[in-house]
Amino acid sequence: MPKNIWKSIKEYENDPEVLKAKLDEYKEGVKDNFTPDEMSSLSRRKFLAILAASTAYATTACTNYRDKGEIVPYVDRPEEILPGKPNFYASTFSDDGKSYGILVKTREGRPIKIEGNPDDPINKGKIPSKVHASILNLYDPERLTEPTLDGKEISWEKVNKSIANLLASSNKEIALITNPITSPATQKLLDELQAKYSNVKVYTTQLFSNCNRQDAWKKSYDSEVLPSIKWNKAKVIVSLESDFLGKEGNRTENARLYAEGRDIVNGNDINRLYTFEAGMSLTGMNSDYRVRLKPQKQYQLVMALLSELLKRGSISSSNFDSSILSSIRKNSISSFATDNNLDTKKLTTLVSDLGKNKGKTIIYAGDILPTETHIAVNLLNDALGNSNLYDYSKGFVNFGSVSSPNDIKQLVANMYAGSVGAVIHFDSNPVYELSNSFGYAEALTKVETVVALSEAVNETTKLSSYVLPLSNILESWGVHQTRVGSITLQQPVISTLYNTKQKEEVLLNWLGNGSDDAYTKYLKSYVKENVYNKGSNAADFNTFWFSALHDGVINVSSKINSYPNFIQSNFANANTSVNGFTVLLQDNYSFGLGQYANNGWLQELPHPVTKLTWDNCAAVSPSTAKELGVENDDVLKINIGDREISIAAMIQPGMANETIAIELGYGRSNAGTVANNVGVNANLLLDGSSQLYFDNASVTKTGETYKLVSTQEHHSLDEELVKDLHLIRNIIQEGTAEEYAKHPEFLKEHKHEIFSITDNHEYNDVKWSMSIDLNKCLGCSECITSCNVENNIPVVGKDQVEVGREMHWLRLDRYYSGTPDEPIVSVQPMLCQHCDNAPCENVCPVNATNHSPDGLNQMVYNRCVGTRYCANNCPYKVRRFNFYDFRDHFRDEYYQNELTYLVNNPEVTVRSRGVIEKCTFCVQNIMEGRELAIKEDEEFTGKDVTTSCQTACPTNAIEFGNSNIPESTIAKNREHNLSYHVLEELNIIPNVTYLAKIRNTHSEDV
Amino acid sequence: MSSEYAQEFSVVEGKPSLRSLDEIISKPLNTKPGLKYYLALAFTLTLLSIGAVGLAASLYYGTGLWGNNNPVGWAWPIVNFVFWIGIGHAGTLISAILFLFRQKWRTGIARFAEAMTIFAVITAMIFPIMHTGRPWIAAVWLLPYPNQHSLWVNFNSPLLWDVFAVSTYFTVSFVFWYVGLIPDFATLRDRATSKIKKVIYSVTSLGWRHSNRHWQHYEMVYLILAGLATPLVLSVHTIVSFDFATSQLPGWHTTILPPYFVAGAVFSGFAMVQNVLIFVRKIFNYEHIITVDTLEKMNKIMLLTGTMVGYAYSMELFIAWYSGVNAEQFAFVNRAFGNYAWAYWIMFSCNVFIPQLFWIKKIRRSIPMMFVIAVFVNIGMWFERFVIVVTSLSRDFLPSSWAYYSPTITDISLLIGSFGLFFTMVLLFAKALPAISIAEVKAVVDGSQPTHHEEH
Questions:
Q1: Which chain A residue lies closest to B138 (C-alpha atoms)?
Q2: Would you say the C-alpha torsion A431, A437, A442, A443 has a positive or negative sign?
Q3: Is the distance from CB of A364 to CB of A377 less than 8 angstroms?
Q4: CB-based contacts of A75: which residues, under 8 Å, 6+ apart?
Q5: Residue-wise pLDDT tens digits, A73-110
Q6: Are the Cβ atoms of B64 and A800 closer than 8 angstroms?
Q7: Are residues A452 and A432 in contact, defined by beta-carbon separation less than 8 angstroms?
Q8: C-beta of residue B66 within 8 angstroms of C-beta of residue B407
Q9: CA distances (Å), origin B153, targets A597, A692, A852, B136
Q10: Which residue of A742, A951, B35, B275 sits 20 to 30 Å from the alpha carbon of B314, by its own alpha carbon?
């Protein structure tokens, strides 16, 4: 080996520098004492740092991620609040003379959902759509925020001072106009106000009141307490122009009790519902027998029934005074049937049903019917021994009658005369509600001081000088009593968002008590004096108070006013003449007449019968439409005397001929961006009396058309091609009670064996399923609203519903069969069926929708690119596509603001434009249950998990749960004789089971 | 065997000299375009910009600008997609399948037809991407690429097969077309007088020297590519039809769809090629190269495929009835007699009745008549896709969810824009590249091939 190997001359010469370098194995800078500073200015680390920084800069510079503000954690965490855990507070919702116990779900101090309070003895945790959706009113961007005088902001102190001065100094009448007051404490305050200022006069207005019923009851039994009805105990229910399942009275309670009587799935006998009505109502839709009859004829019907029952000896003539007997005997079923062109058989069937089920039937007249008819109905019920179905322990509290038309007329006259110093609108809107014939709006201009207390703008605030913003229900204290047996408490769940006060606080201020917590103290002492002291409570008041607030309900003993005798002398004959066209003015199903009109969720909720959204219409029968030459969307001019409106027609199967039904609450001129100019204001047809139906109306076609928009096409009854498809395709499967009794397995008899060439998926752990009992489902749409709130469903607006882009995850399909004039209606809630072999899943190119091990059909919004293939391939068409960012699109970003965003449920993603969405079976609730089980170290069986539609359903038609537990209701329902799947033959194995509707008709009719 | 049958008709009329072929084919490339050309271009660009505005608006505001609604998730954009993919079928069929079958008459029209294929596929490809809710991510996420989320595309989805089928078809068609262009680029390079053109053609001709060895390789590559392209002609529309056939929607879920779609695609593709060529041969004086004989042969193919389509329509109805499934039966009765019956009968008359006129030789050889009939065929074929896509969706299983579909102005603008894009590309092509394959035409001129016939 050569000794001297050299690589350079320097090395050969043993240059010391080279020798030194040779000693170091590594070059400079990579030594043990490595210091980056000695190296080139761009070290590896620095290079990487610059690379990382520039990448970060580049990416952040290229995003449009807006600064969403700072997130600051609590410094002192409120004791009750655990981030991520919802808190529930019991409270009360009241509107239009009705009240409901509610549970408000709050997260980190903000209310996000209103649910029913299960402890409420009347409603048992069920609330109407209006209450569900009212959470949006709290966050309505158009709420009144500051007190104003003639449009200029003014402080509360100044307002209160000047009004208190006015009250004290004015010697003219001061009118206070309010809606019925459900709170005894508020009533007491009003009384105190009147006591202190004797010139204050209180007027109560309510368009849809039950004063005829109250009046008739008083005349019949001399009793103030109108009993509630034990619908669940009735075997035969006869509804006379009464939508007791849809609108009237306490409909959530009615629906629940009625549906208890339709529990055929658990082997119970079911009731039979007869409906006699002119309009097509939710009740009519659900009835076993439905007869079209104008309201004017209802009295005769009752008399004819009495007469026939007498004739058959079902009731004895000793029940009646001789004068009544003679007027009864003037009537007969056969002549009544021929006079009114009715099917005699239906009437005789009814009579024999009534005779057979004495004491277990109920005849129920509608609120709009005159007092005489109500008295006749009371008499009929009395004669049939039905009074044991009256429930006095839950009777209705009479909170003073509504001011009579004459009172209002007098007030208006006084206003014109200048003898009214001030009008105070105490959370009421008479400018819109009262008939134009009073001339109220003009009279207001003659009054010096007009005050309006209101949560949001309305027609009255526009004409008022002082506009005082009221707090939302969720920001207010209160105590309410609408039923004799229970009192509900109302507590604020959020401090006031704006400079608002609750109306009671304002009253107290005018009474001279201006402290901030004046009303809280007042309320507490009211409860102490009037509730606590009257009961026999072991606990001290504070304990009582807090436990009452916790429960939201105080049960009070009620004097049972049982079985008073019918006072025959007050019986009177009713006017039964009817001429020409009859116009029926009805309440609307979803939002009523007040501030809830400005609620997009409610405006977009499809009408349960017509499926119409964003409009009211003139419903006409198919035969009458043909006579008039009217098609859907034709604008009709309707005149009653000199009152006139133009409104689009809609051909509604099942309407009485020569009758037009119009819903009120629409055509608002100053109710907010959402409600303004939606529909037609049919209040203009009111004549100033309390009457809500009119005859001698003239109906003419104007030749114009106006597009009405509904969520279902109108074709099923007209086109031969599509007639009864829902029955042919077994989408709706029904039977009769007799058929079911004879052949319990009648549904399964003609079933084909479905086989698959592949193995079914196995679900060994938990398997989520739902069953829907179509016997109990009334089609009321509460489930839809509840789902909307829970799952952040956007409002899309009329233009988008028109092109079929409503976003509801759950819809209620309504099908007609039978004839256009006498339709049979079937309702079916339709939501994602979470099929085991879901056809949507295999077609998604990016795997954005897939199946969970517990049987959920999942939707991954982030992954979705929006091909809409899944929606096309879904046979139930329950997938919804975000054609726009609807929050951005609706009414110029009306709901896109910081405030309204607070309504969103933080557990549910707010979907962006371009993705598909659909029902998740409320997966957020499932996950919450799972987390809890993990935390408690228990096996997760899913027993307490509920979906939003299920909790909202007033009739408990929806069952949800783990069908892998064989003893669970859901597992049993799936195996039930009446169970079926929609479109079973596709073998996609849906997990929503329907329990077939059993109609309680007589077999010979079928 | 009688000599009349044995004799091959001349593909190119009049036995032009090879040099004159060079000249006439490269003439549009060497002359400045005239006013008419600019007017035509202005027109197509106007159409294109209408579409561009519609597209920009759809991107900005969302797919909500279209008429699509809840049952009808797919509508005009998908109709347009299938329509344009269909148009793209004639080119490759003419250049590949007819090449394999040694149909010499294809020579005059192959290049142009192939170019139209490429343009039609480009036009078509815009729609499936743009019709998604979020095209900016759809364009990426529909491709299977490894990523840190371990997220894959769904290989079960026919839409994904579409992505593969269409992109493969486009790639192969493009390569095939380009390979065919190489000898012509070389010819152009040799004839080029300006420096810039020379450089461009030198690059694009990839060093072609017309050598014997080049020709040998070229013929082999061309044959192999033709072999590759041939199954693709059948597969693309087969797979497009899978989008519908593998779903469970009545009216879509039918096994006849693949052959029916392919026949329809060839049908409409030939109609479009015939329409365009009628203009091309007139404007560029190619009447002796793209002869009436050639056009007649195309018309015969249209007659054949049109009749096949008619058979498919009838068979669909029969099978629907035969299936005994109500939803299936309803879907077809509804097509013919429901609320979209007008569309069905437009489709039926344009595609089945009108092309029957091609049984008559006079009509088959009359330029105006064949032009009008082919226009009807294209209208009919567009409506066929409309009928399949929209009528099936608008009335499916549950009557409760049915809804009528009407297009919006944006939908119309996109359709107009697609024609604008296609014809703009066609016009630019006609001016920038040889519209007829110079090399291939030379090979089919009478006398260019050795023959055993004594008289030559």
A1: A865
A2: negative
A3: yes
A4: none
A5: 778 878 888 888 899 999 999 988 889 999 999 988 89
A6: yes
A7: no
A8: yes
A9: 46, 62, 18, 16
A10: B275
User: What is chain A's mean pLDDT, rounded?
Assistant: 89
Rounded to whole angstroms, the Cα distance separating A291 from A656 reads 9
Q: How many Å apart are CA A112 and CA A132, to the nearest integer?
A: 10
Residues of A in contact with B403 (CB under 8 A): 713, 803-804
- For residue range A10-67, what is the model confidence (pLDDT) as tens digits? 777 777 777 777 776 666 555 566 565 665 667 788 889 999 998 888 877 666 656 6
pLDDT at A135 over 90: yes
Is A916–B62 a contact, with Cβ atoms under 8 angstroms apart?
Answer: no
Is the predicted pLDDT of residue A655 greater than 70, yes or no? Answer: yes
Structure-model confidence comparison of residues A823 and A716, the more confident one: A823
Q: Name the residue facing B333 among A721, A806, A883 (closest C-beta).
A: A721
Residues in chain A: 1006
Q: Does pLDDT of A134 surpass 90?
A: yes
Pair of tokens at residue A687 = 């004549």
Residue showing tokens 């489902």:
A777
Out of A721, A839, A884, closest to residue B334 by CB: A721
Give percent of chain A with pLDDT exceeding 90. Answer: 61
pTM for the full predicted model: 0.89
Q: Contact B248/A842, CB-based, under 8 Å?
A: no
- In sequence order, what DSSP letters do the residues of B106-169 get, joined into one string? GHHHHHHHHHHHHHHHHHHHHHHHHTSS-HHHHHHHTS----TT-----TT-HHHHHHHHHHHH
Q: How far is A910 from chain B (nearest CA, A)?
A: 16
Q: Judge whether residue A703 has pLDDT over 70.
A: yes
d(CA B327, CA B249): 9
Show Cβ contacts of residue B312 under 8 Å, excluding neighbours closer than 6 positions. Answer: B256, B259, B260, B263, B264
Candidates A72, A749, A768, A679; CA nearest to A432 is A679
Is residue A650 very low, low, confident or very high in pLDDT (cuts 50, 70, 90)?
Answer: very high
Inter-helix orientation angle B212-245/B158-191, to 10°? 150
Question: Which tokens go with B426?
Answer: 């066609």
> CA nearest B361: which of B451, B297, B405?
B297
